[in-house]
Amino acid sequence: MSSSTAQRRRGDTRQRIQDVALELFVEQGYEKTSLREIAERLDVTKAALYYHFKTKEDIIVSVFKDLTRPIDELITWARQQPPTLDTKREVLRRYSESMGAGASLFRFMQENQATMRELSIGETMKNHMAELVELLRTQDGPLTDQVRCVSALFTLHAGMMYLQHVEGDPEETRLAALEVATDLITQAHQAA
Which partner from 12, 79, 140, 179 sits 20 to 30 angstroms from 33, CA to CA? Predict the structure, then answer.
């Protein structure tokens, strides 16, 4: 077996562990899920699980880093752009896509808010949100327009978190939330 094949197989196991752990964390809560349960669901030994991750926090931190990488890239990109309406629309679009791709992580964060506050990733997510708010906000506009800009970001969260039980395609819900968020940003810029 070549080293790249062995590397890929280890990567697949790591991904399976992350997926199963996140599924269990959402189903039963982070605190109520043990490494033993994760290993059992994967049908592996605890030793095999420990080879990849020593703690539940190691698992969720790795999931968080993997699934929020597009948000880091988005923030870096947006800082280099002029603060135009088109840039802000693109920030919303790309953020919405990253939320869709990381839906299970966002559900975890919603269902495990106390845990999020205790883990290092909670502070990182709070910082991401603060940076996105600043990128979207109209700096010198009236307060109502600043509220629209901030509300646009949280409209995407509402679509992901609170409308997940609405009948229909989750992608349609995401796109509907993006449309409303884009309308809010547009209103704020038209008034300026």
Answer: 12
